[in-house]
Design goal:
globular; 46 strands; 5-stranded antiparallel sheet; 517 residues; single chain; mainly beta
């Protein structure tokens, strides 16, 4: 187990913020940064593996600082009813830090879609697996809701369409948009009957007050349907024009307007290059996406203009099928896991890579002890570390474990492997709206070089939906920083964000949590 700091550190919002949601004030005793090798300031360090109660195919960072995960039973196998687990980093990595809970709703939530609701802090889960005549991998249309107040899972009104492998993301109104997913798989049963593959190629919108609205006018097999596996966790983001941009494995780009019955436009027919539905992509700046393509090729997509502009950046060391991409507090993108040979150890990547948007180059960073392949996840935590975990079910290895990655910015640049001194945000607003002027207080008047926001999100199947990064302009006077929140919901969708302050050496503070909208 990593060493701990002596006393609790209040990294979250101040007293009063959680009460509106009925939550406790989040308090985290962060993992003390371990002493690293001489190149820790260049490559970072992976901490030791620690046990996880199940294989976390799905991970969601909760507004109170805990992590919700689900995916298998405690034996690491897929079952008809999935357990779910809640990890509390404040309790470390031992047995007491993890709570394993039974599924009480009757839904097989294996390969569902999930997102953190911007108003309540609850987690919405849509779809999942269904068994037909003893055969799995058919979609269901169930809707479940997880409440962090009592760790309960309850069922809500179902969707119109059954969805297995659907993406769920937030629009400008705080509504949740469900894209893609499988309805029925093709299969010949022993009794002579058969099913034909069908896909949920019509989006639906979960309304803020509950219920669903179907976007019948936006049906598409190309954007999120049967063609080129575009139904499988569509790579989609809210774009600065308020529409949802979808990057397809085939290389086309679409824009979905979720108003009324919906409209869909193909905004780019070619230029992105061949991709796969098992490769990661991430919005690294407002309206700008890093998309990993076939052969380790990396492309940049600028959604701030119409039609979108595609450009090249440096390639990765290998193609990372089933890998994960995580945006860091400094705006760089950390990529870990995956394999050049699919769900196989033959081409497994134990080393990680970090992309710098300022230079367009990749740096080889630390190596993990565990292979993170199919059904693995990675997620930024509020202490600026990255939780990497899972993989398996099926796989060459069933990983019921996690590893914490400590990025290079947490280490002193002198090559000693010592942890760097971190700036401390003493207090910050707990909520705000678009364009609002705000102030925060640092613990001391040391100069702050950058102030950044990283949105909470949910990760599964090599895609972290709703994850995004942006930098805030600010003025500093002594300990006080004055800044302005992003101008619109299209740039900063309503929801929860981690607010980081970075010093001149690029060392980030612990995050404060702010709800925008």
């Amino acid at each position: 187990m990593p060493p701990r700091l002596d006393g609790p550190v209040d990294w979250g919002p101040g007293p009063g913020w959680p009460k509106a949601l009925g939550m406790q004030t989040p308090v985290l005793r962060p993992f003390a940064v371990p002493i690293g090798p001489p190149d820790a300031h260049l490559k970072g360090v992976f901490g030791p593996a620690f046990a996880w109660s199940l294989i976390p195919l799905h991970s969601v960072l909760l507004a109170d600082g805990r992590v919700l995960s689900f995916g298998t039973g405690p034996d690491g196998l897929q079952g008809a009813l999935m357990n779910y687990a809640v990890w509390d980093p404040a309790q470390g990595t031992g047995e007491t830090s993890m709570q394993l809970l039974p599924n009480s709703t009757g839904t097989d939530i294996f390969c569902a879609g999930q997102t953190l609701l911007p108003g309540s802090g609850d987690v919405l889960l849509v779809g999942g697996d269904r068994t037909v005549k003893g055969v799995r991998n058919y979609g269901n249309n169930d809707v479940n809701r997880f409440s962090p107040l009592n760790n309960s899972l309850t069922k809500e009104s179902p969707m119109v369409w059954q969805r297995w492998y659907a993406t769920l993301l937030t629009n400008t109104k705080g509504e949740q948009v469900a894209l893609g997913g499988l309805i029925d798989r093709a299969y010949n049963f022993d009794d002579g009957t058969s099913t034909v593959a069908s896909h949920a190629s019509t989006p639906e919108v979960y309304l803020s007050g509950g219920g669903w609205r179907t976007l019948f006018a936006a049906t598409s097999e190309l954007a999120y349907g049967s063609i080129s596996s575009s139904w499988s966790y569509p790579r989609a983001w809210l774009a600065p024009d308020g529409r949802i941009a979808i990057l397809t494995p085939k290389g086309e780009i679409y824009a979905l307007d979720t108003e009324a019955g919906g409209t869909l436009e193909r905004t780019l027919a070619s230029g992105l290059g061949a991709g796969r539905h098992i490769l990661p992509a991430v919005m690294y700046q407002p309206g700008k996406v890093l998309s990993l393509r076939v052969g380790g090729v990396a492309k940049l997509v600028d959604l701030n203009v119409t039609p979108p502009v595609v450009s090249a950046t440096a390639n990765l060391s290998l193609e990372r099928q089933y890998g994960n991409a995580t945006v860091l507090p400094n705006g760089q993108v950390f990529v870990n896991g995956g394999s050049s040979t699919g769900n196989s150890l033959a081409g497994a990547a134990y080393h990680s890579e970090t992309w710098d948007p300022a230079t367009g180059t990749w740096t080889t960073t630390a190596s993990a002890a565990k292979p993170r392949l199919y059904h693995s996840t990675a997620m930024l935590l509020p202490d600026a570390t990255v939780l990497t975990n899972g993989g398996g079910a099926p796989g060459p290895v069933n990983n019921l474990n996690g590893e914490i990655y400590y990025p290079p910015y947490l280490y002193h640049p002198d090559g000693s492997g010592r942890p760097a001194r971190r700036p401390v945000i003493a207090s910050a607003p707990q909520a705000g709206t678009w364009g609002q002027a705000q102030q925060l207080e640092m613990a001391d008047p040391r100069p702050v070089a950058r102030l950044t926001l990283v949105r909470f999100g949910a990760v599964t199947h090599a895609f972290h939906s709703d994850q995004r990064f942006q930098e805030l302009s600010f003025a500093q006077r002594g300990k006080r920083l004055s800044y302005q929140l992003p101008a619109s919901a299209a740039v900063a969708p309503p929801g929860f964000y981690m607010l980081f302050a970075l010093d001149a050496a690029g060392v980030p503070s612990m995050a404060k949590v702010i709800r925008i909208g």
